[in-house]
Amino acid sequence: MSARTASGPADPVPTAGAETEAARNRTFGPLYSRNARAVIARGLMATRSTNWLVMLSGFFEPVLFLVSMGVGLGAIVGTVEGPDGTPISYAAYIAPALLAVSAMNGAVYDSTWNVFFKMNFAKLYQGMLYTSLGPLDVALGEIFLALLRGMLYATGFTAVMGVMGLITTPWALLMVPASVLIAFGFASLGMGITSFLKTFQQMDWINFILLPMFLFSATFYPLSVYPVPVQWFIQAMPLWHGVELLRQISVGVFTAATPLHIAYYLVMTAAGMLLTTLRLRSLFLK
Amino acid sequence: MHNEAILPSGTRSGSPPSRPIVIAAENLTKKYGDLAAVNGISFSVPAGQSFGLLGPNGAGKSTAMKMIGGVTRRTSGRLDIMGLDPDTHGPEVRAHLGVVPQQDNLDEELRVRDNLLVYGRYFGLPMSYLKPKADELLEFAQLTDKAKSKVDALSGGMKRRLTIARSLINEPRILLLDEPTTGLDPQARHILWDRLFRLKEQGVTLVLTTHYMDEAEQLCDRLIVVDKGRIMAEGSPARLIREHSTREVVELRFGSERNTTIAAELDGIGERLEVLPDRVLIYADDGESALEQVASRGLRPLTSLVRRSSLEDVFLRLTGRSLVD
């Protein structure tokens, strides 16, 4: 396939043979060069010029919900039935759900609006793909950055829960890694979906999906209030699994459904990564 | 300026044949649906040569560049970049390439020097190499005092120079330049030409597209003229002018109304006559004697000009004068 026309004595390509073999042996071939960390380093350097107000708003939104609904509405609601059947305060009931929302928001903001801008206006990925980077490096790096943000939000929110006295078991600390898993699912799928969107109007659809998902995914009340077909629909949506997972972890109660929630996100992550890589490939390596 | 460009070209046309071929394309084809953007072109570029792709808009120049860079997959044909196929070894091929795209795509979120450092990281290069290299390239691009500036504060010429500096961070063997000076003022263009010429002296293989013929004459050892995805001509600028045009051109203006009617009276002067809406061109090896013949026929043009034939004459002859969008 590749005649070695360049390997003359005057201007040899000493590593070409080795590189050729290395590329053949790599699973992702021209898609990946094991250098996602360069994309991450770039993202961290760029945060110096980030609009911090926008970043903070993503953190405060669920905190404000927790204060108003948990403390305010909670005063009327009193206690509700927790995941293991024992009564817990309304604030303790909705806090893990809001944490799941927080992880989702952080991941989605980074993987949709940021990616949309970089893809269509800054031409950032176009420049990256003219280097040794492959599309999978870019996807992994960008998604890692989204996860980092999701983790920051989750850690901050967990701290707020601790300050408000809503953490009663050491298991609750596992909410942070679980939030990262939730963020991973949303970030990888979000970036893949964003790659299809071309206009700001289309980007609004993302909010159109996220807002109802936030309100209706058993965030503020149990799933049992819905008729059975609606329950099925909600259970098919990703946020519900995150809400349930974190709610279980927050009180340290695990059921047969726990691995299913985790599996949901693993599949969502894998599908999202695949979609994103294929899309970046078809967009930039035509 | 055209004359200056032509005269020394005999000394710099072509590289010694012993140089290894770094780019070899054979029947290179790219189709988008039914449209063939690049339709079976073949060429090869030896190391250290400055190779030009000329052609009107939509001729397939940029598509050819993208295939060389491995960011567009070819439909058919063979392409060999330093012994590697860019379709299967994109990252490896691009490790030895520098790319200056048609539109600057600098990282606006990073400062000038950081643009170079981060871009070098994309190639997996270590910071210990990149830091002195970035300073060296800023010096080369005459941007040292802008190192900490924001990218959007730079002028068009500065951005272009930064893009070129960025493309050199990995010490590429081949530099791909897609219309490097489009949109720049004459000062910025000349600075850029100077920088590109220095690179050539350092042995970097340059592949550039342009539709400025003076740029092609300045920079290219050899070039191909592409139109509608096919190669129309190939050779050094001087050879193309020799083969496709006469040594000199006489430009006569008789006024818009009379140009067409007077053409018949000019018949037989020079080797070829071309009537344009605003002027009549006589292609002749001796422009002055052609002009004398015009005068001896009693014709009095409003203005007349004898000039050396340029690459632009070749280009327009090969690709036609009708507007291409």
TrEMBL record, chain A:
Write down the superkingdom of origin.
Bacteria
Matching entries from InterPro entries are given as: ABC2_TM (IPR013525), ABC2_TM_bact-type (IPR047817), ABC_2_transport (IPR000412), Nod_factor_ABC_transporter (IPR051784)
Q: Which GO terms describe its molecular function?
A: ABC-type transporter activity
Principal subcellular localisation of the protein: membrane
Name the membrane topology term.
Answer: Multi-pass membrane protein
- Which positions fall inside the ABC transmembrane type-2 domain? 53-283
A single Pfam family it belongs to is ABC2_membrane
Region of interest called Disordered, as start-end residue ranges on this chain: 1-20
- Please provide one cellular component term from the Gene Ontology annotations of this protein: ATP-binding cassette (ABC) transporter complex
Subcellular location(s) per record? Cell membrane; Membrane
Q: Where are the transmembrane segments?
A: 52-76, 88-108, 129-151, 171-193, 205-223, 262-280
Q: Which key words tag this protein in UniProt?
A: Antibiotic resistance, Cell membrane, Membrane, Transmembrane, Transmembrane helix, Transport
Q: Which GO terms describe its biological process?
A: response to antibiotic
The entry sums up its family as follows: Belongs to the ABC-2 integral membrane protein family.
| Protein name from the UniProt record | Transport permease protein
Automatic annotation (TrEMBL), chain B:
Any one Gene Ontology MF annotation carried by this entry is: ATP binding
Q: What is its main location?
A: membrane
Q: What GO cellular-component annotations does this UniProt entry give? A: plasma membrane
SUPFAM superfamilies per the record? P-loop containing nucleoside triphosphate hydrolases (SSF52540)
ABC transporter domain: residues covered: 23-253
Localization, per the record, is:
Cell membrane
Q: Which InterPro entries match?
A: AAA+_ATPase, ABC_transporter-like_ATP-bd, ABC_transporter-like_CS, ABC_transporter_ATP-binding, P-loop_NTPase
Which UniProt keyword terms apply here? Answer: Antibiotic resistance, ATP-binding, Cell membrane, Membrane, Nucleotide-binding, Translocase, Transport
- Asked if the keyword Transport belongs to this entry, the reply reads yes
- Topology class, membrane: Peripheral membrane protein
Tell me the Gene3D superfamilies matching this sequence: P-loop containing nucleotide triphosphate hydrolases
Which PROSITE patterns does the UniProt record give? ABC_TRANSPORTER_1 (PS00211), ABC_TRANSPORTER_2 (PS50893)
UniProt KW ATP-binding keyword = yes
Can you tell which superkingdom this protein's organism belongs to? Bacteria
Q: Which GO terms describe its biological process?
A: response to antibiotic
Query: What PANTHER family does UniProt report for this protein, alphabetically?
Result: ABC TRANSPORTER ATP-BINDING PROTEIN, ABC TRANSPORTER ATP-BINDING PROTEIN NATA
The family annotation for this protein states: Belongs to the ABC transporter superfamily.
Query: What is the name of this protein?
Result: ABC transporter
